[in-house]
## 1
Amino acid sequence: MQLLRAALTGIVFLLLAMPAAAKDKREPIVVQDVHYGEVLFHFYKEDYFPAIVRLLAARDSSRVENHLKESELLLGGLYLSYGHHLEAADIFERLLADSVDQDIRDRTWFFLAKIWQQRGYLERSQGALGNIEGKLPKNLEREARLLQAQLHIDNGEHDRAIALLDKWKGNTEWSRYAQFNLGVALVRSGRIAEAQSILSELGDIDPWNEELTSLRDKANLALGYALLQDGQPNAAKPALSRVRLEGPFSNKALLGVGWADAELESYERALVPWMELRGRDLLDSAVQESMLAIPYALAKLDAVSQAADHYLNAIEAFYEETNRIDLTIDRIESGLFFDEFVTDDPLDSTGWYWQMEELPTGPEARYLFHLLATHEFQEGLKNYRDLNYLYRNLDTWQQNVVVYGNMLETRRQAFAERLPRVEEALARADIDALVDRKLEFDSLLNNIEESNDWLALASEEQFEMWGEITGLENNPALAADIPEAAEVRDKIGLLKGVLQWELEKDFKDRLWRIRRHLRQTGEALVETQRSRRQVDESIRLEPIEFDTLGDRVYGLAPRIERMKAEVGNAMFAQQQFLSDIAVGELSAQKQRLDTYTIQARFALASIYDIATMSEAAE
Amino acid sequence: MNRQPFPSAAMAATAVLCALLLAVAVTPATAEDMQPMAADTVAAAEELASADAASRGEFRSLDKDVQDLKKEVLDLNRDLFLLEEELLFPANSQVAFFVSMDVGEYFELDSVQLKINGKEVANYLYTEREAGSLIRGGVHRLHMANLKTGDHELIAIFTGSGPHTRDYRRGATLNFDKGIGAKYVELEITDRVQKQQPEFVIKEWE
């Protein structure tokens, strides 16, 4: 799954990177809109849900205008990564035809085919494989061929699967899988001899990794049982004996070896592998069956008393196991298992690639181990988990929207409270009168400049001094024709001259400074007028904005409520589906135990009958 | 012993074989290379008899419902996301601060501290995965704020490992003018190849 993740991420990257001139060399993605980069950030972090939401929002608000084409492809890739495969396919079907290189197109179809096969959309999977026009890279080509064979087998077309796999040669891991599939398809078609030659070869390989070792075990097991069923116990034994003693298939192999010996009426030999199974986990049907097989062999060897003991043990063990299964069924039907399953699930990890890292810790885990390994159950759990994510997401939004509603009401209230004060303040601030005053100043300054009225720009101190001087000048006592008066008149004349000279000297500079201040005042007044218009506009628009936002907030609340209900219903349906599968599987196990119990009781009765008859005869 | 106390081996073999044959066509789920994939293999190998056509049909029907719901919830999330942004950060006062990396050969980012007008508003510690996302071209929205129109001062302090894996701490400053309308500011970490040093640049987007 990790590699599927890497491959899909790679495909999305390839879809987005623009082809460069040289073949197979692609330009890196150059982010021209920050919001597009933000989506990529979440995509690379593998947080697909937030990435999709951000991309949808960015597209909706025209924030990715420089990446319109890539954003559509990225959306398709994100949908695919998130497991929203049908929506992804819609986008790819629309865009892949003419906008993407054929090799990338083919790879994308291949991955869609693979995902659809896993999800049971067999026709779609076949269609996607059919859309592949060129030649896939060698490793994908092999996998695609296996996928095609799988689809044939799923459709019951074993001959077509055989024909497809028969040509496969080589000593690669893929060829070994093909060999196994071919062998199994032949067994299904009743061609045991042909299957024997293929599975025997596979069952005798020297594996180079754990996976192939496991495959070899499976091949030997399948072959052994096929031969047993075909009435060839002698041929079955070597195959079954090649299965590892400690592997996941060893129980069934040991059981089969025992049956092969029993078929050959070597009951003592049969007891050896069956006895080995006694100490193993009773959950395994092979172990359960061995509990009946042992007394069967003992009875055949006339160890009737020991056989009776074993049957009694088996009945007791089956009874206890049945009780445990009942408890597990109750727990699953109550929904507890599924509740616990999603309780500690982090809210930020969703997507196609998720798989259960650890088995649940409850008592049901041992029974569900097989189920958890099947695609159908795993995919069902993924959906359940995704639904839980959606439910929690909606729950969070529901709480937020209440807060937003309150926030909006508080703002509306605060606005209503402030508005009279603001309007009062605005009424006090007569900007037009200020403008008029500024214009009057302009006019006055123009007159001063035109008339060169240097005294008008005197400082307060200078103006006072000028007043004092002119006051003294007009003093009647100074009009006297005496030397002292003449001296004072001269001094006053000198002072007046100096002051006038200073005022005339500073006149232009003062004029410039005052003009500058007036200009700044004018600018400030323009800014104030602009702000005033904004304030007026805000006063006019704010209530409309409140209403618009309010409509959205209050309009979304029922949508969330409705979606929550729908998601809740879907969760229930999904849980029911998973529960049915699990309970069905457990019921089958229970049914098998019931059958074994009846057989054990029947055999026990039979032994007692024989013993009674023997005693009577004596 | 005329009665057979247990069925024959052939009957037992049939049951096991049926289970085995349902587990055929194991596909190693390798994609780009030839690594083994234990989980998928086991998954395929352990597929049981319960996976019949009827339950597959039911699964598909439920899956279709889930797909439809996902689409609806995603669309709803889009609307809510936009509403939240407009409500909390109105366009007139909105300023968003982003972090990006170009190449990142000379700098491994640990954290970014952001101060606006002397006040610390964000201090973000990057995980390895997030830093990786930045290097691959992702852009991280570090902070959203509401600012008045006019001049503002931004200080960003980057910490991490510089060349030769030495601790590295650098600051970058920007005085920017917030006008009417949303503003985006990008804190960009680039490689200055000639000096073999990282460079920290602040860019304004309108």
Note: Strands of chain B lie at 94-101, 108-116, 119-125, 140-146, 150-161, 167-178, 183-192, 197-205.
## 2
Amino acid sequence: MSTWHRWCDRLTGGVTSVFRSRTGRFALAGLVFAAGSATALNVNTQIYNPETRKWEDYSPNTAIRYFRTHGQTPQAFQRRIVSFRTAEKPGTIVIDGDKHFLYFVLPNFQAVRYGIGVGREGFGWAGIVNIGRKQEWPTWTPPAEMVARDPKAAQYANGMPGGPDNPLGPRALYLYEGNRDSIYRIHGTTEPWSIGLNVSSGCIRLNNDDIIDLYERVDIGAKVIVLMQGAALYKGV
Amino acid sequence: MNRLTATFAALGLFVSAEALVPMPQADAAEVVIGVPAWSSANVTAHVLKSLLKSEFDIDAVLEPGTNEEIFAAMDAGTEDIHPEVWLPNHASLNAEYVLRRKSVVMSPKGVPARQGICVTQATKDEHGIGSIKDLTDPAKAKIFDTDGNGKGEVWIGDPEWSSTRVEEIRAKSYGYDRTMELLQAPEEIAVTAIDAAIAGDKPLVFYCYEPHHTFELHDIVFLDEPAYDPRKWTVLMPEDDPGWLEKSDAPVAWPPSFFHINYSSKLAGERPDVSAFLEAVRLDVDTVSEMTYALIVERRDPDEFAAEWISENADRVAAWRDAAKK
């Protein structure tokens, strides 16, 4: 089975590296990080393990191992209802790129909190956008430079239909600035172990269960407050 | 101290005045309350409107406008009250209309406001960050670093605000412009960053001012600073001098600010009972923060809220009534 390295569906490109796995997706993940680590900062992602009561490095390798053992991402990134005091009205989305959480505001100072994977460089911006549209089993179109370089990508130059190998996963939420597509998306993943990490370029990924859950809750036009400024890697949960 | 021009007044705008204020036809005999475009002024305007009804059976009209528009209208006699004039921010309007033309009267008792740099209570308790000097310590500043470059981040205000220029000066003066990254962004984003920091139990440091609903919503505290000293406060604005930042120095707390109800001399002449009552109104920063909280966070209807506040604070209102008659 071949899978695609995650990247954001951006017209302008961005990270365009693609690795095709011959041995399955976990081998793919190892490859991705061997290439990426040379440029990564020395700050390691850490996560608190309530079983050992210790801060542990949460690298892609530990993430993969955890996922293989438990079949799901660590507890901190499981979808849950949390306390969330805010002046924002219910239905608003708040994205904390630093902590790798997305909050969907509920009434009574609560929110559904989802774990997210974000771009390695972070968005590099903080801002207010809105959900311009949403799509089930969305089509994904590889950026032009990827199409030019990779024959496998070329066959999908006009769009890869929605399905289990589609990088966007089962749902996509399209972020707009006013009426203009910002090119950024919130979508599902074919790499569930990557939630809680910066591995992709720009877009915000949720587990497929979670993106389906969020998709059902969110309205078109919902305000999305993105707090990604300065976020790259983080310590602690 | 040097003037802080205008835009400090634009803080806290989450709900436009137009959205909350009905626009009926103004009758010449009615009392008109000007409503500037920030939330605490809007709520005060509604409370004053309810008070004028309950105390004097006057049906006041609310008219949104800028500070300049409201002062000009009071001077012309077409509006009667401005609920929240800030000093020193609006000093030039005060000088022109209150001191020179004498067409506007400033109620003498102001509500003390405050601005500075805040942290969440958890930041203070868990990381020992209690003083602004802590931000100049690289090890402490690093606590606020989220992008791994060794420097913490601090939001100092909206790029358009005069106060943000002053915060740049203060950062340079204290020295934390070297240990930290000074971020500028709209207030709406900064306020949501506080929400996320509280929810995610992570440290955060940020410019803050009260009255503001965030003080009601979250546990946040001002960092300690040396007291304001006019001899140490040299603040130039970009419009004063292109070398404003290098030439400015202000390693002390902000000077105290106050905001006052202002009313037209015309109203004082025609309704001295009303103007005496306005001079007796005593608000305070906690009350205004609570009121703003009700409007912004709880999304209460302003008229309903004002009526409820008056009935719940009947004793306080009675004291104002008595003071006005003396």
Note: Chain B has 16 helices and ten strands.
## 3
Amino acid sequence: MKAKIQVLQPGLYSSIQDIGRFGFRKYGIPQSGVMDSYAAKMSNLILNNSEDASVLEITQMGPKLQFSEATLITICGAFMNPKLNEKNIFNHSIIEVKSGDVLSFGKLEYGCRAYLAISGGFMVDKVLNSYSWYEGITAVFKLKKGDELFYKRENQSVGQKNSGIRVLTNYIKDNSITAFKGPEYHLLSNQQEQQLNLFSFRIDQKNNRMAIQMQEPLINELKPIITGPVIPGTVQLTPSGNIIVLMRDCQTTGGYPRILQVSEDGINALSQRLAGGNIKFDLQILK
Amino acid sequence: MSDQYPHFSSMGDKAILIEFEPNISENTLQTVLNCKKSIENILCKVIVEVINTYSSLLVIYMCTIGDVYSEVLSLKALIAEANIGKNINSKLYHIPVCYDEEYGLDLHLLATQNKLSFSEIIRLHTNPIYTVYFIGFLPGFLYLGGLDKMLMISRKSTPRIKVEKGAVGIGENQTGIYPKSSPGGWQIIGNSPLEFFDKNGQPPCQISVGDKVKFYTVSRLEYLNISTEISKNNFQLKSENYEG
């Protein structure tokens, strides 16, 4: 039976995402998908959902949602003091929801993005083999007041699900971002190389699902390169010296030197950093 | 980096970048596409996708690469065996463009800077047969090579916040069409009424890598007529088989 969530308040920026849209870069279509793949995967795992089930990615300020039918939900990632009918609930646990229940969020305690998984996943349209919302590809790209999200009614109780899974949260607070040398790393001057390896950088206000910019620029005289491939985690150095880490919704090609490539874990950690937060690139050599 | 091409390097823990001589040329594209095909055929079980730009290939794997060295060795072997011959069937598409000043916001700038008249600009832009090198930046954005040197102009130092859908632009030695409105830094000389991306289409882009494109000029009235035909699904894009 089809059940629905009524969006009473949308939150700051909430969107449906899955593990990503793969195989369509050749048409210039971004990969998209959950910013923090670890937290999203854990939220699905706890509910025994398949790995590619869709989740709701909630940024900084949570939505207010009313459920029409019983189901089970789990929240992972950032901790935003979630409440069910004004009663505190916790991340990483399985929550039984009944018909008419209202899920809301309070103050953001740590992290930046929380993931709401629902038993069986959200029933939204699959476009080009993915549920991930992206402007121009899916009909909607962010949650609005009055929207409806469909799901399957679930009568199972908590006992039948994986409640004993340990979820790590240390990476959400860790400042160190694992990265590897990018294709144009060798073009950096000694001074640039030192700054990149030793300095801390602050996350700029300019940060979204496409890219995260650092506040402190590097002195830069590198010229643009012939347009080449970029992927989530590619760190670009612009002519004005801005360091830009491309994230899940990034374009598929770019012409700025690619100085670093952030690891998958590093992308997850960066997804949980707020503007003003400090990070440091931890350069590792690939074996 | 050594100057030997192709050059292999890992790009993070899930992708390997193969760089050929960095230039925009038909020969390089041919090599890149042949290698792409041979990698796709053999490694289809372990890779997500192989993407190409002018002179590089990015091989994206499904899982973290355990042993980069042995993966690079097998890619090298595949590339050595890749077909050298010309074996890509391409099509030539005829694309209508209205070069009226209403659409060609930077025609004046280009005319002044490159000392050309509007009609010379149109002639130089509609004359060549362009090659589609890859689709990138935005869904359906064709990167076209083959621009006449006299039309080369650098990008805007500050990009426009909004470039209109269909805008035909020039950026250095490349030309292309914005498939939807977006921020953009290319100099805009006209607009095409065609749709270059349809998420429901199979494939979503009718024109693909290796195909050819030739522009023809249409008046504002013809432009509007074509737009109407497209909205009624009546427009037939002109194309023919192309043998270079």
Note: Chain A touches chain B at residues 22-29, 127-128, 136-137, 180, 182-183, 186, 225-229, 231, 233-234, 251-253, 258, 261-264, 286-287 (CB under 8 Å).
## 4
Amino acid sequence: MPSRIQSALDSAGVQASRIEWLWWLMFWVCTAVFVAVVVALGMAVWRGRSADPERPSEATLMRGVAMATAATIVILIGLLVASVATGRAIGSPPQADPLTVQITGYQWWWSVEYVYPQPNLRFTTANELHLPVGRPILFKLRGADVIHSFWVPNLHGKTDLIPGRENTTWLQIDKPGIYRGQCAEFCGAQHAHMALVVVAESSDDFERWVVAQREPAPAPTTPAQSRGLNVIERGPCALCHTIRGTTAGARTAPDLTHFASRSTIAAGTLPNTPGYLAGWISDPQHVKPGSRMPPTGLSGEDLQAVLAYMETLK
Amino acid sequence: MSRDAGLDRPREVDPASPREPDPRLDPLILERESRLLATTWADPKGFFGWFSHVDHKSIGRRFIATAFVYFTFGGILAAIMRLQLSRPENHIVTADLYNQIFTMHGTTMMFLFAVPVMLALGVYFVPLMIGARAIAFPRLVAFGYWMFLFAGIFLYAFFLLNVGPDNGWFSYPPLAGPEYGAGKRADIWAQLITFTETSGLVVAVALITTVFKLRAPGMALNRIPIFVWAMLVVSFMTVFSMPAVVIASTGLILDRLVGTHFYNYAEGGDSLLFQHMFWFFGHPEVYIIFLPAQGMMSTMLATFSRRPVFGYLAIVLSIVSTAFIGFGVWVHHMFATGLPQLGQSFFTASSIMIVVPTGVQFFCWIATLWTGRLRFPVPMLYALSFFVVFLVGGLTGVMLAAVPLDLQVHDTFFVVAHFHYVLIGGSVFPLLGAIHYWFPKLTGRMLSERIGVAALALFFVGFNLTFFPQHILGLMGMPRRIYTYQPETGWGGLNLLVSIGAGVMTIGLLIYLYNIIVSLRRGAAAADNPWDASTLEWATSSPPPAYNFLPALTVSGRDPLWEHPESQPVVVGLHAEQRDVLVTHVMDAEPDHRKVFPEPSIWPFITAVTVSVMYIATLFTPWGLIWGSIPITIALIGWAWPRGRGKKPSELDADIRAGRVRPLEQVQ
């Protein structure tokens, strides 16, 4: 089987495994019904082929139809009960001490804010979430422009991000690992390239990651890096992006403060390597046509300087 | 039948003694009458005459053919999509074009094929199956056809200009709203809805009236063929569901064109409002497509089991209750929007409950087969394939009704697989079978059985190869409506299989088309009733004459052609020199009065042109509504302008006195 990092049948969390259980229940019940009906059909056709079959009376037939209908109703009620029970189990509100994550969908990327009661502990990142295993996580979901849908199949079903509303969902992860999610509501030209990466890790690893993410970007140390920061602050980049600790503070595009710690570029479109990054910065429209990021028109030297600086944004 | 006025029972005969021929059924008299009727009911010839047809068979044939042309367009678009998705990061089409293509595919198949083709078969066959001489409001039906034709031309003209809609066939705001749906693409979609709804509504109204008022005497409501029941029910569903989508799409046009804020949350509107109204229409629409196909199933199974379908009443009640429940399940398209738990449970229950009436029909059909003496020509093979394929779609439908499971597979390829199993399995399989079944009546020629079997085999295998793996792809996390995917997702292998399956399915459909083309020219000539079926459309020649029946028929049971038709009374007193139609009562189809039907007219065509001009003009300026209504008004005046309709009553009286026509006797 291929890699199972985006699969509803490889559950890694409480909700997804409940749903997976429901799936297999439904699958086997429906398979049994399918076989039963096809066998009945086959027998009917087989009987009908012979010239003059012995005919049951219409009353007998009607009893048969009524019994089959009654069986259908019983099976359906059973499935309904299973469905509602599963729905209640996965829909229960979070228990004590949830982690709260605010996700905002943009065309075509995800803004991720870790929400803490104290404002100074909050921080923002994009397109990649780190989440602790074994702790309930409450998601608050919003759409910034059009409707998107937040979906990490290994962890839970999807919930829409709707402009002007705040939807909530919650989940709890069982197994550490790296999972992939993808926007599941058609949201325009690059709907296909709106993925997100979920890194599920132990509480300790998670807390270390949180501490690192709260830090502002490190200051440049080499001339090339300084020049790169200069290009970013005075060039087109700062019109849309934020790098905390610098003067770049616009919020219409992903926060780049710890960009180098993320594994992908442009919401899961490309792996995060210097080569791909260079290609992306010089011509985003080639990689992701319709993307909101315009071609930057940087000179070769400026581009190299920006790459040098961005490598430091661990 | 004793109270029936206008009916004249041929002399009661002692079955033992040789029958004396009824003088009114004398071949010479019938011959003369048929020539008169043919002149009276003929559609005009010539280039301009072609635009004036009002015969329901002529309109119906055009309707069916046009719908299949659009089906071909939609199929070509699907083939392009399958090429694009056959491997990861393919570059056959751009993201922008792909988004137009999948939107056009869905829009075409739903609005320009599935619903119209069902209504079209209704236009052709409902009057024949109820023994009527014509469809009610024939000019309105012609207008409906022209609107439908123009709808497709309109949509594809803009698509070829690269202004095809690109927001999905559901066109949710705010993506389709003024801010994010730049250009005219979303307007084209919304206006297409207006076009097709205009067409659908007028045809539905005509079908309802036809079924209620034009049935052959004796065809009480509990005797009408099940296909006609299905068409009656879906016509009502059309009337009740389409206004919802008209309001939804009109709100969208207004938001975009004149700056209203129906769907703008920032100004007190609500984007979810659109989804509710769209699906309040959208789910009943599924049944508008599916119920006629169930009617075809009952028709074909009865014929090829050589017995009346088992459980007539149960099946009719199932159709009616499906229609009612079908209006109460729309929210299952919106489970992921974050609705309250209790509401979700209600819609889970209703969505699961709708399986019951369909199950009842399934069991009745199996009982029919169980006690039938079966034959297996191609239409029967399609009907049997339907069982297997639709069953899969129905069962995955139960899964989708469960909210937790739906949250996982909603908007994935699992859903794509599900609704293709339902729509193709539930509707296209019976439809293709029904075309085989009714082709002799439509054209006077039989389709080739041999080629038909080959087409079905390839279509069946290709269909399952295309859509079954999509269930697995959906569970593996592949969302719908993506123009490409990355290799590391691991979806490449199954997608290639799916694309190969789509190729096989396409070959099957091409062979089907080849069969039609070849058989049209060289097919065996069809007898009046080649399948030995029981319903009235087979009581006339293949294809039927312009006036449908001579003599005009009456019935005394559900399966008139299996029930000694020779002792049946016939309708007399309808003039052959004018378009006389016998109007009957709703419940028992007792003769009520005689109505003179309208002559052919070019005004429906002209009206459709002016309405289309107005619809297109309003895409660009609100003033299109004002100025565009002037030509429409002129056209409607032309349409309604009083003209001599056949003979004046005084002349008729003279005819009656002279014995040239028989008057209808007074009722009671």
Note: Chain A is about 40% helix and 20% strand.
